[in-house]
Specification:
The complex is a heterodimer of chains A (804) and B (368).
Chain A (H helix, E strand, L loop, with lengths): L1 E3 H7 E2 L4 H10 L3 E6 L8 E11 L7 E7 L2 E7 L9 E5 L15 E3 L2 E3 L2 E2 L27 H7 L7 E5 L10 H10 L4 E2 L17 E3 L6 E8 L8 H9 L7 H13 L4 E4 L7 E5 L5 E3 L5 E3 L5 E4 L4 E4 L3 E2 L11 E8 L2 H11 L4 H8 L6 H16 L2 E2 L3 E4 L7 E4 L3 H6 L5 H10 L3 E3 L5 E4 L10 H12 L22 H15 L3 E2 L5 E2 L1 H6 L18 E2 L4 H13 L5 E10 L7 E10 L1 E3 L8 E2 L2 H14 L8 E3 L6 E12 L2 E9 L13 E6 L26 E10 L4 H10 L5 E11 L12 E10 L8 H19 L2 E2 L2
Chain B lengths: L7 H14 L3 H12 L4 H8 L5 H40 L12 H4 L4 H15 L3 E2 L5 E2 L1 H4 L10 H4 L16 E2 L5 H9 L4 E10 L10 E11 L4 H16 L6 E8 L2 E14 L2 E4 L4 E11 L1 H6 L8 E8 H9 L12 H7 L20
Parallel strand pairs in B: 1-4
Antiparallel strand pairs in B: 2-3, 4-5, 5-10, 6-7, 7-8, 7-9, 9-10
Helix pairs in contact in B: 1-2, 1-4, 2-4, 3-4, 6-12
The chains are: A alpha+beta (804), B alpha+beta (368).
């Protein structure tokens, strides 16, 4: 919402400066977005008259003008085609700064002739784009008058323009008078009394108006005939221009003006284009009309239209039609002042994509009581500016009664805001805002003004009171500490998620935050739910909810490789979407490593990445969650995006994967602009059962052996495809009490020759077993017996043989 | 004339010279064996004491024992100096170029994203004020995102939200991506009973993308519902939070009336700040910067979740986590948050052990 200071002064009697007005607007909730004050740049400019001109001796197009200003006469060189004796314009004195280019005007010699000062064009003063010569003021302009004042008197838009952001609850401030009312209530002056008078009628019109839809409960109009439409007077043009409105013709300009002056949209119809009764009714499928913007709109049953007997004239309260609008030739009009249901207006506007000033106001709620005063104001302005005689009132339907009556306990002000105000203060503020108050002890009856459709209950009244009194007065009161802070503030799941970030970063990975949505094709490749597709994505690359964090990380890796980075690790902790319902999501952890574990350096060549690095990343996090890694299985059935031979699923129960890890399937590499290998893992923190609540934090008793531990090595020849895990588990299980650790220290295939030759399709796995006796130092015989048990257990479980 | 081969004084001279001349530990050992070994000459001499008369022994005993003691000491001294020489020689051969570079460890390489760090900072501060952390889904119903929050269909405020929608499902329902974290208020209140005191950080989505907007961003919501909670408490909570978060004493706030359908009264909060180039200093200067929106929870919202607004009341606030991060840590561009550029992440990210904590002023500056 834009308005000029001068316009505000039409409604508000105040001495307040522009700065104070702006501060107050901010303070009462009318946020100032921008203030443009053209006059602030016009210091050093004044009215001057060209007394005489002579031709420049050395330039055909230049004239030497003798100019008379408040400081006497001076000569300047001017190239404007309209420079002539008798012209009164705006002189820039020496030292003035030209607004358009920031140039400081000095004494100059132009082609050998001294020139002092400059006669200005509108463009040079940034008042319009107009470069056609210097400004011409009216003859009665007084020499020496400051430029701002003289330009204002001549209808140029030089008044400060204030733009405020109006929140959707304040339709009353979509008119200058409403803003003035709020400022007056805030103590910034007095609201002037209204100058609009009830219209009197000169004749009876035979035009009929009908309302035939609940979306338009009232439609009032008057016909004005014998008028002369044309260009608007300077003051009206200047105001509309200042707030960025196009000037059309006087009739249309008047309706626009009242829309901004009172927040009251109106419409004028050219009576010569109307046939029969003008009706507000529901649209019919198949109907069409050509709007003022020269767009054709297809109407349906949900639209509220204004139509005559022949055709649709426009969308009621949203947009008028081209055919029936007023133009320069119009001599007789029907002025429409109606009220429309906000929801109907919003729906029609949204459906047809029309953002008009009328829609903006009606959908937020125009004061229904403004139907007749708005019509009166239009009639008054039209007859003043265009002449003509006025018909009696034609009205269909009744003005809806929207008066809200609210039972109000004034103590609510203190209980909701902490501000102490007397009841008289509270009443005074409400009265200044136009509320009617009936005081009865603790039960006040408050009637809201009809221009405040947003006020429904006590809380709204409290807001009005505190807004005007000033939110600066809200005291700062410590929140009582009644919560039981000995309890955990975070849930265990939240703690797991937070821990994941610290653990992964501690492993040398860097956290990325990538979009929750990815391209459809990628989403489907990673098992995305087809219904999790946005109807209005911002681009096709961001259309589907991600089923996995990996695509985002892979794309990020591709971008980083393109930037020239190598050997890095990324991770993300975030939601993946599994089902098209609220809550069909899970928080997971994913990591990616690319390049080398270690780049080449003085100690040796680069160490290429292998999948055991990423397996370690996954296990590190699981260990941090307290998962006993000995009890885990590693299975092979990973999803399609993994390399089938170089990936695994870590689980306790095959139905519930705790993590997956492995090389990305090579076929996917090029989708992400990567040349492999890329190692990835996914960890599912929520799949790990939460530990049982224990009565204390005490840890289990630690029993350490006082006796010497014994280490023995064993090498087995087993089938090449035997999982090493199986052998190690068998060894560990040979004597659970005695064996404290089994470590795999050698694994190889091949070498079919020599003493240690392996059979075809076989491999060697060598383990070091630690025996930790609890009761006594082991004897040789006991060690032998344990070794035998281990060999038997391993051979039985694996079908392999001890290598001797 | 005494025999020099058995005369203690001659033997002493001879062996002291030999000890002095031994240049390795092995040579020294030979000398020791020759003198004090089982068959060593000094040992032989000691044995000879047994065959002497008492008078002879009285003379020779102290001489021979003195000899043994003297040689033992000389041997020990020489041994120790030879060992020192040997160690020095070994050390000289073991010199490494200590300027060779090392590979960084994971701890020095890994980084947390600023959004994660700042979210933890926020949680840490509010936890201290007794707020728990609530969560809710990203995919929401129209009811939870709008209607329950007093934003009915066709309400002009819906247009301010630029909502991402899914296609209608079989039930004729159109799910959407939450446009704010406020639906978490609704879900948490629906699932429990007052009083409530929680924050809800999370991802939010709006169909908007330009210099300062990304289609996904992070918000944190706060809600307190109790019997006597009022605007004054809200002001204190916000002052306490912002001072602690920005780590400055006494942040000055300006409350401006505003409008949100789910609060009444509603307000926007500005903080006092000074701008110097790219840097924004909170708590000083003469500028104001809008930082969050808040208000008293609208009675309709309480009614919508089955709470009696006559008995219970309270406040809600919401702010942008990304924006708080930018203001505190000086990132100029929101879009870079979601680009995963490692150079950016290494520069603006946080190390794994840099955990927010209140006992030392929330965050640790680089270099402690």
């Amino acid at each position: 919402m834009k308005f000029t200071l001068d316009w505000l002064h039409d409604h508000l009697e105040t001495d307040a400066t522009l700065d104070i007005i702006c501060d107050t607007l901010n303070r009462i909730g009318l946020e100032v977005e921008e203030v443009i004050d053209p006059a602030s740049k016009l210091a050093g400019f004044e009215v001057a008259e060209i007394v005489s001109t002579e031709q420049h001796p050395d330039a055909d197009r230049l004239k030497i003008c003798t100019v008379k200003s408040g400081q006497g006469e001076q000569k300047l060189v001017c190239g404007a085609p309209n420079a002539r004796a008798g012209l009164k314009g705006i002189l820039a004195n020496e030292g003035a700064v030209i607004p358009a280019n920031g140039m400081v005007l000095g004494k100059a010699k132009i082609r050998g002739v001294e020139s002092r000062g400059m006669m200005c064009s509108l463009a040079e003063l940034e008042l319009s784009e107009d470069h056609d010569g210097i400004i011409e003021l009216s003859e009665n302009a007084v020499i020496g008058t400051p430029a701002a004042e003289a330009l204002g008197n001549n209808g140029f838009a030089i008044d400060p323009v204030i733009e405020i952001a109006i929140t959707p609850n304040r339709p009353d401030c979509l008119g200058v008078r409403g803003i003035a009312r709020d400022l007056a209530a805030a103590g910034l002056g007095t609201l002037k009394s209204d100058t609009v008078q009830a219209a009197s009628s000169d004749f009876e019109s035979d035009i009929k108006i009908k309302v035939a839809t609940p979306d338009c409960p009232v439609f009032a109009g008057r016909v004005i005939r014998g008028l002369k439409n044309g260009a608007s007077p300077d003051w009206l043009s200047a105001r509309l221009q200042a707030i960025g409105q196009r000037r059309i013709n006087t009739l249309v300009d008047i309706t626009n003006y009242i829309s901004f002056d009172r927040g009251r949209p109106l419409h004028v119809y050219d009576v010569s284009r109307l046939s029969g009764t003008v009706t507000a009714r529901a649209g019919q499928a198949g109907e069409k009309f050509m709007a003022l913007d020269e767009e054709s709109y297809e109407i349906d049953e949900n639209d509220c239209v204004i139509a005559d007997d022949k055709s649709v004239l426009g969308f009621g309260g949203v947009k008028g039609g081209l055919e029936s609008g007023a133009n320069e030739a119009t001599t007789e009009v029907l002025v429409e002042s109606a009220w429309f249901e906000p929801i109907a207006i919003a729906n029609t506007g949204r459906r047809h994509g029309i953002d008009s000033d009328a829609r903006y106001r009606f959908e937020r709620g125009v004061d229904p009581q403004s139907v007749l005063p708005g019509l009166d104001q239009a009639v008054q302005m039209i007859t003043q500016l265009c002449g003509g005689e006025v018909s009696s009132l034609i009205q269909a339907g009744d003005v809806p009664d929207n008066q809200q009556e609210i039972a109000f306990d004034p103590h609510r002000v203190k209980s909701l805001t902490g501000i102490d105000l007397t009841e008289d203060n509270i009443e005074d503020i409400l009265l200044r805002l136009g509320f009617e108050v009936t005081r009865q002890k603790e039960k006040w009856q408050v009637k809201a003004p009809t221009w405040r459709p947003d006020v429904h209950g006590s809380a709204d009244l409290v807001e009005e009171v505190t807004r005007i009194y000033g939110l600066d007065n809200v005291p700062s009161v410590p929140l009582p500490s009644d919560a039981d802070i000995t309890q955990a503030i975070q849930t265990q799941e939240q703690t797991r998620i937070a821990l994941a970030r610290r653990i992964m970063a501690g492993s040398g990975l860097t956290e990325a935050v990538t979009w929750s949505f990815i391209a459809e094709a990628v989403a489907l490749k990673f098992g995305g739910h087809p219904a999790l597709k946005l109807a209005n994505p911002i681009s096709s690359e961001l259309s589907n909810m991600r089923p996995s964090l990996l695509p985002g990380l892979l794309q990020a890796a591709g971008r980083n490789v393109a930037r020239g980075l190598s050997d890095f690790g990324l991770f993300e902790v975030g939601q993946v979407f599994t089902d098209a319902i609220p809550g069909g999501q899970e928080t997971v952890v994913a990591a990616l490593r690319y390049g080398h574990v270690k780049p080449r350096d003085w100690s040796g060549p680069a160490e290429p990445l292998n999948l055991f690095k990423i397996k370690a990343d996954a296990l590190t996090l699981l260990t941090a969650y307290g998962v006993q890694t000995e009890s885990l299985q590693v299975l092979r059935d990973t999803p399609d995006w993994y390399h089938p031979g170089q990936s695994g699923v870590i689980c306790r129960d095959p139905r519930t994967p705790l993590a997956r890890f492995g090389a990305l399937h090579p076929a996917l590499l090029k989708d992400f602009d990567l040349d492999g290998p890329v190692m990835v893992c996914e960890i599912f923190p929520m799949a790990i059962p939460l530990p049982k609540k224990k009565p204390s934090r005490s840890k289990p008793v630690l029993s350490l052996s006082p006796y010497q531990a014994v280490r023995r090595d064993f090498a087995f020849e087993v089938a090449a495809d035997l999982p090493a895990d199986k052998l190690m588990k068998a060894a560990r299980g040979a004597d659970k009490k005695l064996i404290s650790n089994v470590a795999l220290f050698d694994a190889f295939t091949g070498s079919a020759e020599g003493a240690g030759a392996l059979g075809e399709g076989m491999k060697s796995l060598a383990i070091e077993v630690t025996l930790s006796p609890m009761e006594a130092t082991l004897t040789d015989a006991e060690i032998e017996a344990a070794a035998d048990k281990i060999i038997q257990a391993v051979e039985k479980a694996t079908g392999g043989k001890l290598r001797r | 004339m005494a025999d020099p081969a058995t005369d203690p004084a001659s033997l002493e001279n001879e062996f002291l010279a030999a000890i002095e001349n031994a240049s390795t530990l092995a040579e020294l050992e030979e000398v020791r064996l020759a003198a004090l070994g089982k068959k060593g000459r000094v040992s032989e001499l000691l044995k000879s004491l047994g065959g002497m008369t008492a008078e002879e022994r009285q003379v020779q005993g102290p001489l021979i024992n003195g000899l043994k003691l003297s040689l033992s000491q000389a041997l020990d001294n020489r041994k120790s100096s030879l060992e020192t020489e040997a160690l020095n020689a070994r050390l000289a051969g073991e010199t490494e170029d200590v300027t060779l570079p090392v590979q960084p460890t994971g701890l020095s390489e890994g980084r947390l994203h600023p959004v994660s760090q700042v979210t933890e900072e926020i949680v840490t501060i509010f936890a201290d004020m007794g707020f728990s952390v609530a969560e809710g889904p990203d995919v929401e119903t129209d009811f939870h995102n709008f209607t329950a929050l007093n934003i009915p269909e066709s309400h002009p405020a819906r247009q301010m939200h630029d909502t991402f929608y899914f296609e209608e499902n079989e039930d004729g329902e159109r799910l959407l991506l939450r446009t704010h974290t406020s639906p978490v208020q609704i879900r948490t209140m629906e699932a429990g009973d007052p009083p409530f005191r929680f924050i809800a950080p999370g991802r939010t989505y709006r169909c908007d993308s330009d210099q300062t907007h990304t289609p996904m961003f992070h918000q944190v919501e706060g809600l307190v519902i109790d019997k006597d909670t009022h605007l004054g408490h809200l002001k204190w909570v916000l002052e306490t939070f912002l001072s602690t978060f920005f780590e400055v004493d006494g942040v000055v706030l300006r409350l401006r009336p505003s409008y949100f359908p789910f609060t009444e009264p509603s307000m926007e909060v500005d903080v006092q700040c000074a701008r110097a180039g790219n840097e924004i200093r909170i708590g000083e200067g003469s500028d104001w910067m809008e930082i969050l929106g808040c208000g008293m929870v609208h009675p309709n919202v309480l009614t919508n979740v089955g709470i009696d607004p006559v008995v219970y009341q309270g406040f809600a606030f919401g702010m942008g986590i990304d924006r708080l991060a930018m203001l505190k840590y000086g990132m100029p561009d929101l879009r870079a948050f979601f680009d995963a550029d490692l150079r950016w992440l290494r520069h603006y990210g946080f190390s794994a052990l840099n955990m927010p904590a209140l006992q030392r002023g929330l965050s640790v500056d680089e270099g402690v």
